[in-house]
From TrEMBL, chain A:
<keyword id="KW-0067">ATP-binding</keyword>
<keyword id="KW-0472">Membrane</keyword>
<dbReference type="InterPro" id="IPR027417">
    <property type="entry name" value="P-loop_NTPase"/>
</dbReference>
<keyword id="KW-0813">Transport</keyword>
<dbReference type="InterPro" id="IPR050166">
    <property type="entry name" value="ABC_transporter_ATP-bind"/>
</dbReference>
<keyword id="KW-1278">Translocase</keyword>
<feature type="domain" description="ABC transporter">
    <location>
        <begin position="19"/>
        <end position="249"/>
    </location>
</feature>
<dbReference type="InterPro" id="IPR003439">
    <property type="entry name" value="ABC_transporter-like_ATP-bd"/>
</dbReference>
<dbReference type="Pfam" id="PF00005">
    <property type="entry name" value="ABC_tran"/>
</dbReference>
From TrEMBL, chain B:
<feature type="transmembrane region" description="Helical">
    <location>
        <begin position="88"/>
        <end position="109"/>
    </location>
</feature>
<feature type="transmembrane region" description="Helical">
    <location>
        <begin position="142"/>
        <end position="162"/>
    </location>
</feature>
<feature type="transmembrane region" description="Helical">
    <location>
        <begin position="23"/>
        <end position="43"/>
    </location>
</feature>
<keyword id="KW-1003">Cell membrane</keyword>
<feature type="transmembrane region" description="Helical">
    <location>
        <begin position="55"/>
        <end position="76"/>
    </location>
</feature>
<comment type="similarity">
    <text>Belongs to the binding-protein-dependent transport system permease family.</text>
</comment>
<feature type="transmembrane region" description="Helical">
    <location>
        <begin position="174"/>
        <end position="194"/>
    </location>
</feature>
<feature type="domain" description="ABC transmembrane type-1">
    <location>
        <begin position="136"/>
        <end position="317"/>
    </location>
</feature>
<feature type="transmembrane region" description="Helical">
    <location>
        <begin position="292"/>
        <end position="317"/>
    </location>
</feature>
C-alpha cells in the first residue's frame, strides 16, 4: 500500500513547481573584502524538469542552492517558486546537503520523521516514514543512531529525510558524492525512477559529468567564481537511459570541453 | 566438534572450576571479616565503647554470609557472582577493619578521641540516628532545592543568551561580572537581604550552581553547527522548534558538563551555608561535634556526607547516560 503511494504507476505530471531565477547575484564578506560568488545568474526551470548544475569547485553552486532553498536572500535579483517570490525556507523545497548532517541525537527513524513532525502530521505519516526508510534500504537500521552508520548509509538517510516530505522541488547538493560506485549507480536509478513517478522538479549539483547526463533533462554549466552560466543544454534522451548510449558519450565530451577539460579526454 | 566435547566434558569441568573460585573467594572474604569480628570480641577495649559486642556480631554475620554465598553459587548464581567480583575488595576491607580495630581499640596505637575504632562510629549511628537523620534531611533539602533552582535558572539564562542577541546584550555582561565571584563572598549581604537564613542559603547554593550551567549551556547553544539549523529550517521547523529540537539537544553534552561542575560548587556552598546560615545539616553537625571533641560523630557524619555527594553524582551520571545514550564512548561512573 505505502510503497504504491510512494511510487504511483502513473507519472504525477503536475507535482513539481516551476522555479525562476532572475539576475541573481550574491557575494560574501570575507575579512573586509567582498567575495563575489554569483554573477547575474538567470535560469527558468519548468515544472518537473531535472536540471543538473556542473561547475568548478568553489564557483558558487552550493550558494545558489542555499538561495533556492530560501536559507539566505540574494544580494541582488529575485527567485520565484511557481511565480511566488522565495522569502524563506519551505518544506516544498527540501535540500539534501553535501554533508548528510543527520541529527546525532535522533535515531534514523526520528531523523527521517523530522519533516512530518514539524508539519504536525507525523501521526498520519508513520507508515510513510517506514516506507521511505525502506526505499533507501535501511529498514534494518531504523533504530540506529547516526554514529552507527557508514558514510553512504548516512547519505541515504539524508535522502530519505528529504523525500518523505513529498517536495515540489528536490534540491540535491552532490548527494551521492560519498557513496561507493555500486551504491551510487543504484541510487542514481532510484532517483530517476522516483523523479519520474512523483514528477517533482529536481535541481542537482554534481561533479560527475556522467551522473549529470544520466539523470538530467537539462545540464547547466557554470564558469569559475563568480559563477556565470556558461552553457545550458537539453539532454533529450528517453528514460530509462543506458550508460553505454553513444549520444551520452558525445554529450560528455562536449560538457568536459565546456568545463575546460577537453585536453584530458 | 561433538567428538571433542565427548572426550573432554569441558562444560562440567569449567563449571567446577568456576564453582571452586567462587567458593574460595567467598571463604577468604568471610575469613577476613570473621578475623575482624574476633579481633573486636576476643580482647578487652582500652576505652569505653558500648557497641563492641554488637559490632563483632554484625561483622561476623557478614563474614558468614560471604562464605554461604560463595558455597551456594549452584543455587544462587548472582550472589556468588557478586562475591567473586567484590572478593578482593571484601578481603581488603576485612583486613583493614581488623587492623583498625587492633590499632584503635586494643593496642592504643591510634590516639583517642581523634581516631575512634569502628564500634565508636557504630555507636553514633545507633544512639544518635534520629539527630543524624534530621541533619541529613536538612542538608539534602537545601542541596536539592538550591541545585534544582540554580540549574534551571542557569539553563534558561544560558539558552536565552546563546539564542537571542538581545538577551545576550543585557545578560552577558552581568554574567561575566557576577558569575566568577565565589558565591560565598556574598555571605554578608545575602543573610540580611533575605527574609530567612534558609532562603539565603538556597540563594547561595543556587547562585553557585547556576553559573557553570549558564556558561556551559550558553557556549553549547552558541556553538551548534549551523548546518543543523539549515537542515531543520528547510524541513519546516519553526523558530521555537529550532530551540527545542536542535539547539537544546545539541547543547546537552555541554549542559551536563556544567551540571557536574554545578554539583561540586553546590556542595561547597552547602557547607558554608550550613555553618554560617541555617545552623543545621551535616556540615553544621560536623563542626558542632568537633567543638565537643566527639570525633566519632565527625566520622559518622562525614560518611553520610560522602554518601550524599557520591549519591548525587551517581544520580546525575544515570540521568546523563539515559539522555545522551546517542553519544558514543560515554565515561561510565
Ligand atoms: N558563509 C560564507 N562566508 C564566506 N564565504 C563563503 C560562505 N559560503 C561560501 N563561501 C565562499 O563562496 C564560494 C562558493 O562556495 P560554494 O560552497 O557555493 O561552492 P561550490 O560551487 O558548492 O563548491 P564545491 O563544488 O566545492 O562544493 C567559495 O569560495 C566559498 O569560500
Ligand atoms: Mg558545494
Amino acid at each position: 500500500m505505502v510503497a504504491v503511494e510512494l511510487r504511483p504507476e502513473q507519472p504525477a505530471a503536475s507535482a513539481g513547481a516551476s522555479l525562476d531565477i532572475e539576475n541573481v547575484s550574491h557575494a560574501f564578506d570575507l575579512d573586509g573584502s567582498v567575495l563575489r560568488v554569483l554573477d547575474s545568474v538567470s535560469l527558468n526551470v519548468e515544472p518537473g524538469e531535472f536540471v543538473a548544475l556542473l561547475g568548478p569547485s568553489g564557483c558558487g553552486k552550493s550558494t545558489l542552492l542555499r538561495l533556492i532553498a530560501g536559507l539566505e536572500p540574494p544580494r541582488a535579483g529575485q527567485l520565484r517558486e511557481n511565480g511566488q517570490p522565495i522569502t524563506g525556507p519551505h518544506p516544498s523545497r527540501v535540500v539534501v546537503f553535501q554533508d548528510p548532517t543527520l541529527f546525532p541525537w535522533r535515531t534514523v527513524w526520528n531523523n527521517v520523521a523530522l519533516g512530518p513532525e514539524a508539519q504536525g502530521s507525523l501521526k498520519q505519516q508513520r507508515e510513510r516514514v517506514d516506507a521511505t526508510i525502506d526505499l533507501v534500504g535501511l529498514s534494518q537500521f531504523a533504530k540506529a543512531y547516526p554514529h552507527q552508520l557508514s558514510g553512504g548509509m548516512a547519505q541515504r538517510v539524508a535522502l530519505a529525510r528529504a523525500l518523505v516530505n513529498d517536495p515540489e522541488i528536490l534540491i540535491l547538493d552532490e548527494p551521492l558524492g560519498k557513496l561507493d560506485s555500486l551504491t551510487r549507480l543504484t541510487m542514481q536509478s532510484e532517483i530517476v525512477s522516483l523523479w519520474r513517478s512523483k514528477g517533482f522538479t529536481s535541481i542537482l549539483v554534481t561533479h560527475d559529468v556522467e551522473e549529470a547526463l544520466f539523470l538530467a533533462t537539462r545540464v547547466v554549466i557554470f564558469s569559475e567564481r563568480p559563477a556565470r552560466i556558461k552553457a545550458d543544454f537539453r539532454v533529450d534522451l528517453p528514460y530509462p537511459r543506458h550508460r553505454g548510449d553513444p549520444r551520452l558519450a558525445e554529450l560528455r565530451r562536449e560538457s568536459l570541453a565546456l568545463l575546460g577539460l577537453a585536453a584530458s579526454w | 566438534m561433538s567428538d571433542v566435547t565427548a572426550l573432554h566434558p569441558g562444560d562440567t569441568g569449567l563449571s567446577v572450576a568456576t564453582g571452586r573460585t567462587e567458593a574460595l573467594t567467598g571463604i577468604a572474604a568471610g575469613l577476613a571479616w570473621l578475623l575482624a569480628a574476633v579481633a573486636a570480641a576476643a580482647f578487652d577495649d582500652l576505652g569505653d565503647w558500648l557497641e563492641t559486642q554488637n559490632y563483632a556480631i554484625g561483622v561476623g554475620v557478614f563474614g558468614l554470609s560471604f562464605i554461604v554465598l560463595g558455597l551456594t553459587g549452584r543455587w544462587f548464581p548472582r550472589g556468588a557472582a557478586w562475591v567473586t567480583r567484590a572478593g578482593p575488595w571484601l578481603i581488603a576491607l576485612g583486613l583493614v577493619l581488623t587492623l583498625w580495630q587492633l590499632a584503635a581499640a586494643k593496642l592504643g596505637w591510634l590516639p583517642q578521641p581523634f581516631f575512634p575504632p569502628p564500634q565508636g562510629i557504630l555507636e553514633v549511628y545507633t544512639f544518635e540516628y534520629e539527630e543524624l537523620a534530621s541533619h541529613f534531611l536538612a542538608s539534602f533539602r537545601l542541596l536539592a532545592v538550591g541545585f534544582v533552582i540554580g540549574t534551571i535558572a542557569g539553563f534558561l539564562v544560558g539558552v536565552s543568551i546563546g539564542w537571542s542577541h538581545k538577551a545576550g546584550y543585557w545578560v552577558h555582561p552581568v554574567l561575566r561580572f557576577i558569575g566568577p565571584l565565589p558565591a560565598t563572598s556574598l555571605l554578608p549581604i545575602v543573610f540580611f537581604a533575605f527574609p530567612s537564613s534558609w532562603s539565603a542559603s538556597i540563594f547561595l547554593i543556587a547562585l553557585a550552581a547556576g553559573f557553570p550551567v549558564a556558561v556551559l549551556t550558553w557556549s553549547g547553544v552558541a556553538n551548534v553547527n549551523t548546518a543543523y539549523y539549515d537542515v531543520a529550517r528547510t524541513l519546516g521547523v519553526k523558530p521555537l522548534g529550532l530551540i527545542f529540537k536542535v539547539a537544546i539537544p545539541a547543547a546537552l553534552p555541554n549542559v551536563f558538563i556544567g551540571l557536574f561542575m554545578a554539583l561540586g560548587a553546590a556542595f561547597s556552598a552547602l557547607m558554608v551555608a550550613e555553618l554560617v546560615g541555617v545552623k543545621a545539616g551535616i556540615g553544621f553537625y560536623i563542626q558542632w561535634s568537633q567543638g565537643w571533641a566527639s570525633y566519632a560523630n565527625v566520622y559518622a557524619a562525614l560518611i553520610l556526607l560522602a554518601l550524599l555527594c557520591s549519591g548525587s553524582i551517581t544520580l546525575l551520571f544515570r540521568i546523563r547516560d539515559r539522555l545522551l545514550s546517542w553519544q558514543k564512548g560515554l565515561v561510565k561512573w
